[in-house]
Fold this sequence. Notes:
Shape: elongated
Structural class: alpha/beta
Helix content: 40-55%
Strand content: 15-25%
Number of helices: 12
Largest sheet: 6 strands, mixed
Number of strands: 11
CATH superfamily of the largest domain: Nitrogenase molybdenum iron protein domain
CATH topology of the largest domain: Rossmann fold
Amino acid sequence: MGFLFLILSSLAYSQATQTPPQRIASLNICIDQLLWELVPHERLVSISYLTAHPMWSPIAAQVRGIPLNHGLAEEIVPLKPDVIFAGEFDAPEAVALLERLGNPVERIPLPRKLGDINQQILQLGQLVGATEKALAMTQKNSAQVAELQAAARQAANTIQQPLTAFWYSSNGVVIGDGTLEHELMLLAGLRNLAAERGMFGFNQLDLELLLSAKPQILIIEEGTAEAFSLAREYLAHPALSNAGFKIVRLPAGLSGCAASVLGDVAVALKEELAK
Length: 275
C-alpha cells in the first residue's frame, strides 16, 4: 500500500503541473476499452472501428455515436486531437506521418507479463489525467488475481498433484511459456503441458498429440469458441467433447486486450476450477 501511495502521489503531482488532454483519439481497440473506463466519453473524438464491432469488442453497443477511424492519418488530423494513442505495432506508416505533421502521439507498449498490465493502466491514466481511476482499476485487478492464488493454495491442500492443462485456441494452437496465459495457469496451480514440452508463445499442436497428452483440463476463451471460421472448427471437434477432460470456458480477450479483461478472466478461472 505504501508503494501504491508513492505512485499515486507522484502521478498526481505530474498531473497537477499540466492540463489533461481534452480531445483524445485512439487507433487501438484495447486502448479504447481502457479510455472508455477512464475518461468522460465526450473527450473521445475518435476510436478504432474495431471497437464498434460486436465480434471484437465488449463495448461495441456502448460506443455508438463516437467517431471511428481505420488507422489512417487523414481521418485523425482534421479532428485536431490533443493526444493520439496507438499500440506498440499499430499503423506504423500512419503514426510516422502524424508525428511528422507535429501531432502528439503516445505509443502504449503491449503488456507481456501480468505485472505489465497494471503498469499500462497507470501510464494511460497519468496521460489522460485519470490517475485515481487508473489506480482503482489496478487495485481491483490485483485483488482478483490474489483471490485466484488463494483459491489455488487452498485447492493444493486437498489434491496430491497439480492438475494438468492446455490453454487451447483456434487453429489447434496451444499457449506455452512466456505468455500472460501461462502466468495465469501457474497462479491457478495448474501444470501447463505446452510449457512442459518446451513450447514458448503460441504453437500449433495436432489434435492427436493433444489427446495423447491426456490433459485434465482444457481452457478455451469463449469468444474464440463462438466466432465462426474454419480455424475455430478445431474447437468443435467431437474428439474434444468426448475426451473426458474438463473444459473451462473463460471470457474472451486476454490474448488481445489483457488490461481490460484480466480481472474477469481471473475470477472466471477461479470459479470454473472450483466446480
